[in-house]
Amino acid sequence: MPLIDHPASRDTALYPVFEDLKLSRYRVVKDVLAETGHNWQLRTYRSQVIALYAAHTRAIDYWHQEEPNNPDALMMWARVLTQRMFDLRLPANDPMVINAANHARRACHAAVRVCQQCPVAWICLLALAQFDADPRYKQDADHWTPSQTTEAALPEGPWPLFWAARQRDPENREAYQRMLQFFYACGTGAHVFAQWTAMRAGECSILLMTPLYAYAEDFRQRRISQQTSDFSYWADHRVRHYVQQARDGWFRFLDADTRSSPALSMDLNLLAYALGVSGVGGAGPVFQAIGRYATAMPWQTLGSRHWEENFRKARDFALTREPVSR
Question: Mean pLDDT across the stretch 84-107?
Fold first, then answer.
């Protein structure tokens, strides 16, 4: 069974979007976002995936120019400018980066004004906070505020932006991931934040996956510097605790329709990967939910150039040991 690693995963509505973007056209993007409506989870996911490709075209630029008051156009304009920031690959204190970040923030605030209830522009602002993650050169007070919670000794960070996103969509996965990325850019605080998140998450909460994203990034960085191996890292009892918690506290509560949501593709792939390398087990049903839709994170990001072979081996092993109904 051939794998499908398309960025849209099983979201078939997005496939024609990429064809349109290649021609710098935005009509299909406009239609898809209109159909998405106020489904914030799906809107966040789709806008993020679209922006990864639209940032390298002029499609959203044209849409923004032609319909400057359209809420979806303004939201995607904020998305694209934010994505282009990451594509610059320049030091955060470079004048070009600072100017581009300010331009992107203005686009975010314009999107917020026309659609107060949408969390996406706030998530973009959270993403942009990573370019102000050096505590020696603090640029914006919103990026360096106390958490205002007494539940844990949480570090200073872009908490006003995070609370604004949560107010609109309390379990928005990307908002939590952007906070993790900010703390990783700072060099400290990511695991404290991830553990705090997991402690506050209820049953069937996708937030139980947050520690796995923190461990995945930590493992990626350690592996680059050759400080760890798959076994020694993922077999740690603390890591295994959170892997098991994500399996039993989140995945096992999901019904078939929810498991097939395209917005959960990366979460399911990361959970399957972690269950395998940690030895916790129980990845069979997760692989069944994944089907053919592998994602770059974690198989390519944390693996090797033979990621497809590694995915198949992990899947076959899990399904052989843990047969599931088909």
Answer: 90
